[in-house]
Write a structure and sequence with these properties.
Elements lengths: L6 H20 L6 H15 L6 H8 L3 H13 L3 E5 L7 E5 L1 H22 L8 H14 L5 H9 L6 H20 L5 H13 L5 H8 L9 H13 L13 H22 L4 H23 L1
Helix pairs in contact: 1-5, 2-3, 2-4, 2-5, 2-7, 3-4, 10-11
Protein name: DNA-binding MarR family transcriptional regulator
GO molecular function, one term: DNA binding
Keywords: DNA-binding, Transcription, Transcription regulation
Length: 298
Amino acid sequence: MDDDTATGRLLWQVTLRWRAAVDRAVAPLGLTHAQYSLIGSLYGLTRQGRTPSQRELADFAGLEQIYVSKLIRGLADAGLVTRSEHPTDSRARQLSLTAKGVEVTEAAVGIVHALQHDLTAPIGGPSGPRNRALISTLRTLLGGTPGASEGSTAMTATPTLTGQDIGEAQGALSALLTNVLAASDVSANEYVTFRVITVRGPWESLDDLAAYLATQPQLNLDTAGAGKLCAGLVQKGLVTAGGPVALTPAGSQLFESLNATVRETTQRIYAGLDANDLATAHRVLATLTDRAHRAVSG
C-alpha cells in the first residue's frame, strides 16, 4: 500500500495497539480500556467541580450514550461510581466518583501516563515538539468531535500531587536505601552523616556535627540522639573523635564503596525519566520543603 494512502490503516493499528496496552495495564485495577476512558473523563469533570449527567459525560467523552449507560452500570456495580437524582431533570441521573473510584482512577491515570511516555518515546516523549505536532494533527483530523480534545486532556492529566504521594515516595526510597546499605551494616542515618561530613565538613567538633544533624528533619533525631549517632561512628573507627571531625581512612573507603552502590541503584530508579520532569519535580519539592519549614517555624 502506498504511504500516501496508509493514514487510516496506521491510525487503526496505533489505536488497536494502544487499547491493548491500556487493557493490560489497568486490568489489575479491575478496569478495561473503555471503562478507564469513561471514568477518566468523569474524574476530569469532577476536578472542574462538575457533577455531570450521563448524557453530559457521554458528550464529554465522545462516546455513544447507550454505550456509556452500559459502562456506568459496571462501574457502579464495582463501587466506583454513584448515580443520584438530578436537581432539575427527573429523567436524568448525576454521576460522581466514590472514594474508591477516585483512588482507582488516580492509580489508573498514573499508569496510563507512564504508558504515554513509552508510546511517544520514539518521537521524543510527550513534551517533545514531534508529539505536540502529532496532537495538533490528530485534533485537526477529529474536527469538531464533541469532547475529543477536552476529554483527552482531562483523562491523561497527571493526578494532583499530594502529601501522601510524597510520603509514599519518601518511604519507598528510604526502604530501598536501607536495603542497599544493609550488607555493609550501615544505617541510613549513618550514611547521611557520612555525606554531611564529606560535603559540609570538616566540623570543628562532634558537638557541632551533632547539633547540625539534629536540625535535619529526615533523620528524626534530637541533639542527644545525634550525639549518640556520632559517638557510634567514632567507636566503629569510621569518624575521627577530635577536631576537625572527618572520615577516617576506613570511613572514606566505606563511604566511597557505598556511594558507588547507591549511585548505580539511583541510575536504575531514574532511568527513562524526562530531564524536564525531574527539574520540575526538584523545584516543586524544594518549594514545598521551604514552605513547610516556614510553617513549622511560625
